[in-house]
Amino acid sequence: MPALLTTKLRPPPAKAQRVSRFRLVAALNEATALRLTLLSAPAGYGKSTLLSDWVAQTQQAVTWLSLDETDNDLERFLHYLTAALSGSSETLAAMDRDQQAVITRTLNDLASHDEQLTLVLDDYHLITNPAAHALVEFMLEHSPPPLHLLISSRSDPPLSLARWRARGELTELRAADLRFSEAEVADFLQAVMALTLSAADVRALTERTEGWIAGVQLAALSLRGRANVSAYIEQFTGTDRYVLDYLTEEVLIKQPAAVQNFLLLSSVLSRLAGPLCDAVTGLSNSQARLEALERDNLFITALDTQRQWYRYHPFFADLLRQRLNQADPSLLPALHLRASHWFEAKGSAASAFYHALQARAVTRAAELLDAHPRQEAIRRVLNGLVGAHAAPALATEALLARLLAGEAPLVIPSQLLSAFEQRYPVAPLEGLEPLSERELEVLRLIAAGLSNKAIAKRLAISLNTVKTHSKNINSKLAVKSRLQATVKAQALGLI
């Protein structure tokens, strides 16, 4: 066995210019009282940066192991693991070749110490050897009280997480916890990127990136030297060249061909469900595929508690759609048309209409619109959008053709879709408790950026009542912040 590479056993140094994340550092400190901490989030959510910051601040003893693909060799993996735990550079030539015996001896030595020790396994997603996972599972099951294991990974490791969760021995920090808040985005831009943006621009950038740290950093790179910052942020998407390169190199091309194929074909959908993806992609077992994507943290979010509906991060969806269009532009209308028929069969005429227009299937869209009970009101909206006031008797199909011929964006004008959805709302998602009318009022004002105090004044209710409504909203939507509530409500069509 070659000599140990000592840099693998040292945490990366904390950056001098960084955002202090006191709440997360505190959470990591508290978590050491339990057996296992899992830091699981997609690329670019600042996992390693947070850990190096925590190591620099904590008063507790920490040992570190940065993993890479070569550590899938079990002998090499064990060599580094025992070195991290024991602080010894002893080679395996002098060790018992029974891996569990080696770990047992190391754990027994730790049990004789009183000092708490945290072992950090960074980039654990690179470990694919089942024998290595079994070794970590054995270590978890038999670890002495002084030892705490902290795993940082882009995907959930194949360990008995449900068992440790049920035992109350697992702390989990995920993308929803790691994403930047609006205040953290402002701090990052100023302290790290030397940029000062207005409060409105910071809020807009936070909403567009959904707090994805790499997205904020890549946007800042593009913002340098631009005169009209607000205009750029408004147009900032996953097709920005820096974002595109990052997501392609760090995420997409690292997936197996079958996974890439499913991602591209399903990217035409703003909401994903197993049966819907089966119908649109022509593949089978889409529900299992979606669940696997969630476990692997592939920029996908569950929209309900029963894991029936999902959505991709908007920037990831932008990348996927661009790659799909580059691969075969003819696929886009065909996939949208399949989605349109699926939604019509499920009674969601608004979504059927939306996908028909995305497919440029004017005749089908006109038929859906003409069958709508509020067709006259919708025609008035459509007339206003296409400027056809002089021809009120123009056929629906002709109106829609004019709308599309006028280079209408592929995202259908919100006025038209809103009018259409008044009768046929987006299909409700099972597993979510419905919000009351008052909670919806509060949610709309939260999305508009109003503070709790301003909401209380607007609705003529007490500040404590607003806080209670906000707490109920977060609970029902299964989120933890105002930003998450806004993003999820928009995805569900609630606002």
Q: What does this molecule look like?
A:
The protein is of the alpha/beta class and 495 residues long. The protein has 4 domains: 6-177, Rossmann fold (3-Layer(aba) Sandwich), CATH 3.40.50.300; 182-236, no CATH class; 329-427, no CATH class; 437-492, Arc Repressor Mutant, subunit A (Orthogonal Bundle). The protein has helices at residues 22-31, 47-57, 74-86, 99-111, 130-142, 161-166, 175-178, 182-191, 199-209, 213-223, 229-235, 241-250, 257-266, 274-281, 286-295, 314-327, 331-345, 349-358, 362-370, 375-386, 396-405, 414-421, 437-447, 452-459, 463-477, 482-492; strands spanning 36-40, 61-66, 117-122, 147-153, 170-174, 272-273, 300-302, 309-312. A 5-stranded parallel β-sheet has the order 2-3-4-1-5, sandwiched between helices. Strands 6-8-7 form a 3-stranded antiparallel β-sheet. Strand 3 (117-122), helix 5 (130-142) and strand 4 form a beta-alpha-beta unit. It is globular, with a radius of gyration of 26 Å. It starts with 21 loop residues before the first helix and ends with a helix. Residues 91-95 and 423-428 have low confidence and may be disordered.
| Alpha-carbon Rg, integer | 26 Å
**Cα distance, first to last residue?**
60 Å
Q: What's the CATH topology label of the largest domain?
A: Rossmann fold
The amount of beta strand, in percent, is 5-15%
Mean pLDDT, all residues: 85
Shape: globular
- Give the strand order, joined by hyphens, for the main sheet: 2-3-4-1-5
Q: How helical, in percent, are the residues? A: 40-55%
Helix count equals 26
Total domain units: 4
Unreliable stretches (pLDDT < 50, length at least 5) are 91-95, 423-428
Query: Structural class, from secondary structure content?
Result: alpha/beta
CATH-wise, what's the superfamily of the largest domain?
A: P-loop containing nucleotide triphosphate hydrolases
CATH class of the largest domain: Alpha Beta
Q: List how many beta strands DSSP finds.
A: 8
The largest pleated sheet is described as: 5 strands, parallel
CATH architectural name of the largest domain: 3-Layer(aba) Sandwich
